[in-house]
């Protein structure tokens, strides 16, 4: 990319102001009838952060984002965006939003729609640039109603980007997108966060949170069950896995090794979960000479997710 | 909010189905009243051709204005309102864009019905009267555009169109656009004269005789406009 991005260069004062709070919900609860959708959720997103709100379907991701943006009244608690009531922040043009259930005008060509929305913001991106960034340039002249679902999702992304907002909120942005479109979307998100913009996205794709967020908020059953840097959330599941094949030894012998917290036997393979893989390996080789095929595996977000949410799918 | 207004204006003039429905139908009715049926005695046919031309132009254009609500109801059920709610566009900006584009979009139907009167109905008027008629009939649709918007935010999808069809019919008949109020019984006629469609029509009917709109007409239309506009803004806010 040779694009100099001069249009979206943000003032130094804004970049230095990285400690500001972009989005904040405090003690927010919400019920739908007898179902608790959110139960006392607190979240502060600092300017410049890329936050993934991760959780199974029904965890409360959309409800939390809707309340944070003032689109839904909370049962209890408060929401603020850039220190303002959310509606005021939206009116000021500081926020771009991609909603799951937002509709588009089907009779309008893509380019016209994007240009009309861009025109609502005080300092929008040039429309040509938005169309390219969202990957909708090649069908900019076609009416929205003639597009596929994935193409319409890209149009939604274009509308979220159009105002060149300081905060981008994306609710399941890659639903319905093919691999290339996903990559292009995240590339654009990264380009923005590199400039100090704030991005909050909801997803149930663990890899997206792992690859693109610097902070993960794990929601399950309407509560935040983990919140922190991706590495810290992974570490919550506890250490590294050491796997190897052995001729035979009993579990208690492995449990006695330094650092080991847990031992699993899977057929002839032994799986040790350890907080200190170096010490465990050193002792393992010293004490057992028939150990073969040793591998160490860092836990992925998936295992963190399963262990922290109890694997629940509601 | 000009960018959204521009978009709505383009949409209003790019809707062939709507334009045909709201010009074709009044023209067909006009030809029915003046060419097929014997509504008035032979010696009044000339006057009636002009009177009916104004009635039908008003009828078609106020329909166009009302049915802005149908588009709004559809957009709402498809979630466009939700998308707009996350943009900087304020409630007032959206309502204004809908109002202005809806009112602009009826201009073709006024012109076509007047052209039918001149070319097919044999209506002859002083030259200045024609642009005056266009302008007066056009001004008269403003309250109906606001009423349409209010309906669009009260009902969703097809229900809004059905309800407006009924309102359209009642207001048009009560306002003497189909048959003159002179043929109505006294109590109904009094009611009719305070109805928005009658006063909208009266702007054009009086212009046929070279007369200015009455103060009553201006006052009644302004009152209906304010009421319907307030209703529209209220419904919009409630619908968010």
Characterise this structure.
The complex is a heterodimer of chains A (314) and B (240). With 314 residues, chain A is an alpha/beta fold. In chain A, the strands form 3 sheets. Chain A has a 6-stranded mixed sheet, with helices on both faces. In chain A, strands 11-12-10-13 form a 4-stranded antiparallel sheet. In chain A, helix 4 packs parallel to helix 6 and helix 9 packs across helix 12. Chain A is elongated and about 70 Å long. The longest helix of chain A is centred in the middle third of the chain and has 16 residues. Chain A is built from 12 helices and 13 strands. Chain A has 2 domains: 213 residues, 3-Layer(aba) Sandwich (Rossmann fold); 60 residues, ACT domain (Alpha-Beta Plaits, 2-Layer Sandwich). With 240 residues, chain B is mainly alpha-helical. Chain B has one domain. Chain B contains 13 helices and no strands. In chain B, helix 2 runs parallel beside helix 7 and helix 12 packs antiparallel against helix 13. The longest helix of chain B is centred in the C-terminal third of the chain and has 25 residues. The two termini of chain B are 18 Å apart. At the A-B interface, strand 5 and helix 4 of A face helix 1 and helix 5 of B. Chain B: InterPro entries: ABC2_TM, ABC_2_transport, Nod_factor_ABC_transporter. Chain B: GO terms for molecular function: ABC-type transporter activity. Chain B: It is found in: Membrane.
